[in-house]
What we know:
The structure holds two protein chains of two kinds.
Chain A: H1 5-14, E1 22-25, H2 28-38, E2 43-47, E3 60-63, H3 66-78, E4 96-100, E5 104-115, E6 120-126, H4 133-139, E7 144-148, H5 157-166, H6 171-190, E8 193-204, E9 209-211, E10 214-218, H7 227-230, H8 240-247, E11 251-254, E12 259-263, H9 266-278, E13 285-288, H10 295-307, E14 313-320, H11 325-339, E15 345-351, H12 354-363, E16 371-373, H13 377-388
Parallel strand pairs in A: 12-14, 14-15, 15-16
Antiparallel strand pairs in A: 1-4, 2-3, 2-4, 5-6, 5-8, 6-7, 8-9, 8-10, 11-13
Chain B: E1 10-14, H1 22-32, E2 35-40, E3 55-56, H2 59-66, E4 70-73, H3 77-89, E5 94-97, H4 104-115, E6 122-124, E7 130-133, E8 137-140, E9 156-161, H5 164-176, E10 180-186, E11 192-196, H6 197-201, E12 210-215, H7 216-224, E13 230-236, H8 241-252, E14 257-262, H9 286-295, E15 299-300, H10 307-315
Parallel strand pairs in B: 1-2, 1-4, 2-3, 4-5, 5-6, 9-10, 9-13, 11-12, 13-14, 14-15
Antiparallel strand pairs in B: 7-8, 7-10
Amino acid sequence: MKIHEYQARELLAKAGIPVPAARVVETADQAAAAFEENGFSLQVVKAQVFAGGRGKAGFVKLVKSGAEARAAADFMLTHRMISVQTGPEGIVVKKLLLAAAVDIAHEYYLGMVLDRDRSTVSMIASAQGGVEIETVAHEHPEAIIKEPLHPALGMQSFQARKTALGLGFTGKQAQVVADLLLKLARFFINYDCSIAEINPLVLTKDGKILAIDAKVNFDDNALFRHPDILALKDDSETDALEIRAAAANLNYIKLDGEIACLVNGAGLAMATMDVIQLHGGQPANFLDVGGGVKAEGAIEAFRIILSDKKVRGILVNIFGGIARCDLIAEALIQAGREVGFKVPVVVRLEGTNVEKARTMLGAARHELPTLQVADDLNDAAKKIVAATR
Amino acid sequence: MSILVNKNTRVICQGITGSGGGAFHTRGCLDYGTLMVGGTSPGKGGSKDANGLPVFDTVDQAVRATGAQATMIFVPPPFAADAICEAAAAGIKLIVAVTEGIPVLDMVKTKKFLADFGDSVKLVGPNCPGVITPGECKIGIMPGYIHTPAQKGKRAVGIVSRSGTLTYEAVWQTTQMGWSQSTCVGIGGDPVKGMDFIDVLALFIGGDPVKGMDFIDVLALFQADPLTDAIVMIGEIGGAAEEAAATYIQKHVTKPVVGFIAGRTAPPGKRMGHAGAIISGGEGTAESKITAMRAAGIRVADSPADIGKTLREATGG
């Protein structure tokens, strides 16, 4: 689960990490007032959205007066933000952060991430902050400091001291940074984060250390023990169909193509997308209905994929294990009755109760005029691509 | 021969009376012929499950009363990590964790806990379909009938995979072309897990980011198993276990290995169902894995429908 920058800075501040003074606003008038209340001569207005590319899109702006803050806020709240990550239709901005701009002497990167290779959490730090850490890791691997945390004990003080010195801090400042690292590591563990990143951490010209921007994500599987984090969830940028699918316990991700797919199992669902592309089509979605799917869930799955107006064909690929082929066939027939399949549907069934399913589909032939049955996955992909040409 | 499990493996189910499907899948394993000897459910010790098997309060009691060597875990996610540790402490040698949705930091700690037991305890999963030696022992949720037991005149393939249904796909294709399977291991979809590809390849693997055995653990077992003629390794986007396995295969595996990687069309930054299936920071792409595997001499199928065909090409059979 993702949270917004303003939420992340509030959580980090609560964890004892220094952040510059700031206010969250939702109108242009509030922005002008917040500028005065903050009381700094130079401030920055930042759109609070999940999508990246804010700066280039003009949704991060330096302002020098209440009037400028009002104008910047007015622009951001009345225009859709369009960046490489939003798609051409862009997204609506509802909240802005107005923060003190600081005189930066140097920018650093600090992050905690899940380290899959070591099966633990690792701290990553670099004196080359303010840019994408992946770029630094790629171009200047020597500029990256990495310290794996002990799985049970977490970050040790010596690791924090070593890292602070490695970043070039000395004396009192090194102590401040080491303390901040320990707090960030504790924050990561306490809240079951999947990433907790401060980029940049800055050293100001007057010698202060401040976290300017933060990105914090949480492990979805651990949200049951963090109701306070779950309460921060904002679905406003999530695709409406994805929200609807989640409510029905379906694992659905909308994509850009024209061939929808309905599959059981995450690996097979990905592989089905791949095989559609291999035969010249483009997948419209990822959809894993799961092993324990019931008839109502499967019907809702058909409703959801048919709500995507771009969809010109559907590939159903079921390898029945726990999921039964006859149940999927029943859902297909019912969905056909309810919404009608105007687009071609190709079905590939294998596994538990496959014969029963084939008989059912055969008997319902007249109700499903656009239905074709495939022998295997290659055949299914070829048929659906041909049918949507 | 086979790896990890055979007809003499005595198996219990943790969470046998719960809502996670313990009793239902225990039935499936019994029907397949697995030597299921009991189950655990705290607070229900002394009773019987829906299949008539004895239920114990603790794994320790179950091991002492039944001689169980392996466990199949269906305990709900908040308590599953504890269940894994309990099994290891009670002397269980093979832990198959089917449960999906265990917090990854729970698995980080659990993996450290298991490290104290060294090689004597193996964890498969979590978030995996399980392990099967066809005709002898099925521990998990896979449909049994698609498999073919090893027999004279049939070559045997060992299968190791991060995905459940994609494993079934490979099993079915190899069955249809007249092969048998020595053992099939789903290492699971999580980022931190027990055995990895290499454990199994030297054995067989699950889908979570932090899990038990990884590819390498499994690869090592398959390489050492006299019954296994060839190996199928099925990976997916996320992490670098396939790249590590490719390097391992080049150095240590002399048997033919064929592969498939799911997720060529997956967009970066989106988690594709499995907790571990995500491309982040440009790492974990299907292309990177396929390139590494091909460079190591592994034949990688372009289509999931061609896994069997690719195996035939790699083995001349």
